[in-house]
Design a protein that fits this description.
mainly alpha; two-stranded antiparallel ribbon; 4% strand; globular
Length: 178
Amino acid sequence: MRHRRAVRKLCFKAGLYRRGLLHDLSKYSPSEFWAGVKFYQGFRSPQAREREVLGYSAAWLHHKGRNKHHFEYWTDFADGRRTYVEMPPVYFAEMVCDRVAASKIYLKDKYTDASPLDYFLTRTDRDGMHPNTRERLEYFLTMLKDEGEEHTFKELKKFVKEGKIRQKQLKKAQKTGK
């Protein structure tokens, strides 16, 4: 619940009211909830402990397949190879909020604005992301480290708004053939 509240607060800063309210609701499904109870430790994701015990995390497999704010959701397998799809701006921004909130929750008083970037650079499968998603994520997390939270989330809000405008323009162009 603390994580969802922290994500909601950040999503609201980024203008993502709906995403903030809907964030991680799949965690209340039986497959995720009971694994969270069973493997809870308080200082890291229960999914990490589930992996140690079972060799995989059924809760994570369920979660990433239902939540578009995880870059892993945007992975497919086509023509015998893995392909990575660029994340739409709204889900990308929610991912930024999710990562910052997770760092705050797990690190508590050790959190700094550099923490999400450090996690991204040292513990994220950056090769498993679309190159544009990877570049944007590093850009915004570096901005957070260098410029702080207020500035970063103002810029993230602009990015989402511009992305929505661009999406509308693309759809209109597709309909008119221009």
